[in-house]
Write a structure and sequence with these properties.
Layout (H helix, E strand, L loop, with lengths): L1 H17 L5 H11 L1 H26 L5 H30 L4 H14 L1 H19 L10 H6 L3 H7 L11
Helix pairs in contact: 1-2, 1-3, 1-4, 3-4, 4-5
């Protein structure tokens, strides 16, 4: 259900961001039904990639020491990071275009590489914000222009989720 549910949620969020009328259950069911085969296949491939890379990282971490295991460890870290940058494009292209699975992955890879200059700082900035939310006490994050480039008004969205955040200017 991971692939079809993600497909339905992506379709809803895409329409919401485009400002189109949204009928939650009808649009969700329409998207799942329309993209069921590809969504299921993409969900299975998605899970397999994450599980295999996580297994490889764990296995090579506990066997570090030789050049080969060190290379395998860092190569798998790079691959999972690249896949995390590709993943948002996969489902968005699935619900928007009629492409084969191979073309979805090819285009997602191209977009992830082309958008790396924008995606990596936004990804790291969001990770810092999440780490700051988990920390005890007060957390200050400066130089947030990288976060702003990737996430418009993130403080409003975090506040809507229950986080106590505020933007300070002039500091």
């Amino acid at each position: 259900t991971l692939g079809p549910v993600t497909t339905g949620a992506t379709y809803l969020f895409r329409n919401l961001l485009k400002g189109e009328p949204l009928f939650f259950w009808q649009d969700f069911k329409y998207s799942v039904k329309r993209n069921l085969k590809q969504g299921l296949l993409l969900g299975i491939i998605d899970c397999l990639i994450v599980v295999l890379l996580a297994y490889n990282i764990t296995l090579s971490y506990f066997n570090l020491g030789t050049y080969v295991t060190n290379f395998v460890f860092y190569a798998n870290i790079a691959l999972i990071f690249l896949f995390l940058l590709m993943r948002p494009y996969l489902y968005l292209m699935l619900v928007t275009f009629d492409l084969s699975i191979f073309k979805l992955f090819k285009n997602a890879l191209i977009f992830a590489i082309i958008g790396a200059k924008r995606n990596i700082p936004a990804f790291v900035g969001a990770a810092l914000v999440i780490a700051g939310l988990q920390a005890d006490g007060l957390t200050r994050i400066s130089r947030i222009e990288h976060i702003d480039r990737g996430y418009e008004s993130i403080e409003r969205d975090l506040y809507a989720l229950g986080a106590h955040v505020r933007r300070e200017t002039g500091t």
